[in-house]
Amino acid sequence: MKHALVTGGSGGIGAAICRRLAADGCHVWIHAHRGVDTAQALADDISAQGGSAQVLVFDVTDPAAVTEALKPVLEHTPIQILVNNAGIHDDAVFPGMRAEQWHRVIDVSLHGFFNVTQPLMMPMIRTRWGRIINITSVAAVAGNRGQVNYSAAKGALHSATKSLALEVASRGITVNAVAPGIITTPMSQDTFDAATVAQLVPMKRAGRPEEVADLVSFLASERAAYISGQIISINGGMI
Predict the structure, then answer these.
(1) pTM (2 decimals)?
(2) Where do the domains of the chain lie, and which CATH numbers do they carry?
């Protein structure tokens, strides 16, 4: 049984990914920071459905906390599937953006990627098999007003994805990014009404978290062994 870690696993997209990877036969580590109760309820539900899941609690922006949480896990088994899904919005037009808004978003999405991914690399390399999937955004591909910080963080992940893919390709490890557009989650429902979605998305609807999870499932499988260093959009034809 392969072990998978999904950061931000208690959110809308993260939860769908956790459920799908568990259905695929993985033991899923559901990362949470503040949403611990939600993550535990998800783990309990996955277990009740016959899957295997546990909650892992840490702040992705705190390297020491990440190491402390991951060390006992890695002593028993490597994590061979990593989905870097943790990310936050703190939107403002750039002339009015505060320094803390910039740093907070960069810290979670970009520094969090390093803090979580780097400790997992050598154990993964030793197995000569791994899947790293970074969840980014259409904003990193096309930009978005009021999200210079978020676009910068996710765009940097695109570059990191391509470079890391080159470094580990000979070790049986693939690294890809999935860039969702408007996906139906509690966060997006407060931002995009039906009329806005119809205007922005050629398919005239928002995507479902399960559709993103299906793509992640494929990229995490043996079937995607020759796909690496790619930025794959899932946005209903927006771009």
Answers:
(1) 0.96
(2) 3-234 (3.40.50.720)
